[in-house]
Design goal:
single chain; 78 residues; mainly alpha; Arc Repressor Mutant, subunit A; 3 helices; 3 strands; 49% helix; globular
């Protein structure tokens, strides 16, 4: 079965929701695929896009987590 555009859009939203509902969660590709009931191949492609878009980040151990940019505080000249 080939995924349609609306199927992919729904998966993107579902995957994002997993991380928005629990910001500290870390999940592997397999865990994500099981949670959203999708193939590993399709999930991996979606995760790559979400990592590239800086929505998620992948850890060195292969877990995905929500991306939180490091905010540098600017120093004001006194």
């Amino acid at each position: 079965m080939k995924a349609t555009r609306s199927d992919i859009e729904a998966l993107v939203v579902s995957i994002q929701q997993e991380f928005l509902q629990a910001p500290a969660v870390r999940l592997t590709l397999t865990q994500i695929a099981q949670r959203v009931d999708a193939s590993l191949v399709l999930c991996k492609a979606i995760l790559r896009v979400l990592v590239d878009a800086r929505v998620l980040t992948e850890t060195a151990t292969g877990e995905y987590r929500r991306f939180f940019p490091h905010v540098r505080e600017s120093r004001s000249a006194a």
